[in-house]
Amino acid sequence: MALSGLDIYKLLPKTNCKKCGSPTCLTFAMKLAMKKASLDQCPDVTEEAKKALDQAARPPIAAISIGSGDNEVVVGGETVLFRHEKTFYHQTAIALSVDDILPAADMDQRVKDIEEMSFERVGQHITIDMIAIVNKSGTSEKFIAALDKIIANSKKAIILASDDAKTIEEALKKCADRRPLIYAASGSNLKDMCRLSKDYKAPMAIKAKGLDELDKLSQEAMSLGAEGLVLDPLPETLNQALNDFTQIRRASLKKNYRPLGYPIISFINSDDKYRIVQDASVCIAKYAGLIVLDSLDKEVLLPIVTLRQNIYTDPQKPVTVEPKLYPFGAVDKNSPVMVTTNFSLTFYTVSPEIEASKMPAYLLVTDSEGMSVLTAWAAEKFTPEIIADTMKKLELENVVSHKKIIIPGYVSVLSGKLEDASGWNVMVGPKEASGIPKYLKEVWK
Prior knowledge:
Blueprint: H1 5-9, H2 25-33, H3 47-57, E1 63-66, E2 73-76, E3 93-99, H4 104-116, E4 118-121, E5 124-127, E6 130-134, H5 140-153, E7 157-161, H6 165-175, E8 181-185, H7 190-200, E9 204-207, H8 211-223, E10 229-232, H9 238-254, E11 265-268, H10 273-285, E12 290-293, H11 298-311, E13 325-328, E14 337-341, H12 344-356, E15 361-366, H13 373-378, H14 384-393, E16 404-407, H15 415-422, E17 425-428, H16 436-442
Parallel strand pairs: 3-6, 3-12, 6-7, 7-8, 8-9, 9-10, 11-12, 14-15, 16-17
Antiparallel strand pairs: 1-2, 4-5, 13-15
Helix pairs in contact: 4-5, 5-6, 6-7, 10-11, 14-15
């Protein structure tokens, strides 16, 4: 919870030394509260005050960084219960597990499959975020051998899943620079795991049966200086997961309760692919920051990543495609030109229908700030002037020999003014995208 200027002032030296560039400590405190100054401008602030101010400035749910470089994954950092209240910032990270008991050839293939797992949806390239190495063998040797394979063949962020602190330490010696997540500290190994988290600057998950025990261990881990925490209340049923995750979220957001103000992790394992999709979907919606799956089936993963994409797309920032001229098929100077907006859902609704027509054609996409055709027209973001200006910028007259452009049927009202603005013959296309194949075959000439 953000501190007021007076709250910050109480933590400052109150010497009015002016070394920070402000006339008084109170003025400096007010600037800090408005984020117009930084704490390092005060040379006399104590370490205790720095720590208190850092904690106070932290989001209700801490943002935890796992991995490094281009493969860094950030989970948590959320400030609301529901997306419509503001927005969600960090989408649920998805990890796939690799058991250290797998035969060498099977392990190589599994890591390769995880690396190659990807999906294209509404113009976005979606991949798996992390790999979780699971110490099923109970031995350090096999766990480290599995880690070596993953380090050699993948740059994804890593989860080190073992209850043995010595095994985790061996692993950290090899990959601490990749900032892996330690999974997990519990009542039996908390001090050892906290020491490793602190020494190797690695985030650490805590697991405990139920929220009371999890709360207790989280407080102890915080006092021991663990680098960054992730919570697992180990629910036994989906209903319990929903209850526990919601209580954690509410406690951190509504009561600003720091011991539970961390991202949640959930391991989802089942032989039933429908159960996996069901459980993962509930956990993503309410409110897991990270889920670990054991299934490599694309038919399982696709609905999961699709749901995640839908939930974590900021409704105030629609998914868009690049405004430009898109060719479909073996286009030439006689090919028809259609026009639409840069809302991705509109683009990916229209483009398959153009392809289905089997007629080479161009699709001119204008910048409508991510609005659909009717919405953009109503907001004056899809106007004759904007369309004509786009045509001119892309030198459309040099692309095709005819001067005909097809506009969506729902905005037929634009036709007259667009003809005046562009000098082109404006044809009114179908209202629905499904009518495009028939229109191109029967109407276009």
